[in-house]
């Protein structure tokens, strides 16, 4: 399970990651990454991170989008659990304060854990500067 401080729950956070973040698409999933943005001093008390304490960097947070196109409820929850487990193991790679949204594509329903891991690693590598495509 993903620790509570690393879970993204608010609609505004999902929107910020998807609209203002960078994106890397793979055959099974799309990963959106929004790096931490410097917060002006006057807005410091109005951060979107409910777990942030004043003066410390918030932890990276991840959210998941698994639509009905992936499959029925059982299949969607299976895909979401697999993705949560994979992201939990990769939290240390993410910059502090970053927002990550992992969106599963329909092919993720038929993919096994290894295939999802491979696509997630490739997308994160591209987003974090480990490769030029």
From TrEMBL:
Q: Where is this region: Disordered?
A: 37-60
The record's comment on protein family reads: Belongs to the RnpA family.
What assembly does the database describe for this protein? Consists of a catalytic RNA component (M1 or rnpB) and a protein subunit.
Q: Which reaction does it catalyse?
A: Endonucleolytic cleavage of RNA, removing 5'-extranucleotides from tRNA precursor
Q: Name one Pfam family in it.
A: Ribonuclease_P
For whether the record's keyword set contains Magnesium, the answer is no
Compositional bias per record (Basic and acidic residues), positions renumbered to this chain: 37-52
Which species is this record about? Streptomyces humicola
Provide the protein name: Ribonuclease P protein component
* One GO MF term attached to the UniProt entry: ribonuclease P activity
Keywords assigned by UniProt, alphabetized: Endonuclease, Hydrolase, Nuclease, RNA-binding, tRNA processing
* UniProt function note: RNaseP catalyzes the removal of the 5'-leader sequence from pre-tRNA to produce the mature 5'-terminus. It can also cleave other RNA substrates such as 4.5S RNA. The protein component plays an auxiliary but essential role in vivo by binding to the 5'-leader sequence and broadening the substrate specificity of the ribozyme.
């Amino acid at each position: 399970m993903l620790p509570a401080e690393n879970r993204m729950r608010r609609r505004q956070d999902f929107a910020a990651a998807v609209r203002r973040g960078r994106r890397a698409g793979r055959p099974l999933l799309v990963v959106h990454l929004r790096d931490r943005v410097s917060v002006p001093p006057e807005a410091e008390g109005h951060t979107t991170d409910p777990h942030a304490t004043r003066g410390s960097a918030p932890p990276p947070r991840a959210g998941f989008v698994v639509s009905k196109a992936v499959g029925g409820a059982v299949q969607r929850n299976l895909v979401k659990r697999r993705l949560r487990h994979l992201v939990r193991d990769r939290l240390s790679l993410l910059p502090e304060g970053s927002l990550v949204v992992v969106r599963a594509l329909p092919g993720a329903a038929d993919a096994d854990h290894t295939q999802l891991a491979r696509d997630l690693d490739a997308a994160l590598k591209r987003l974090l500067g480990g490769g030029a495509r």
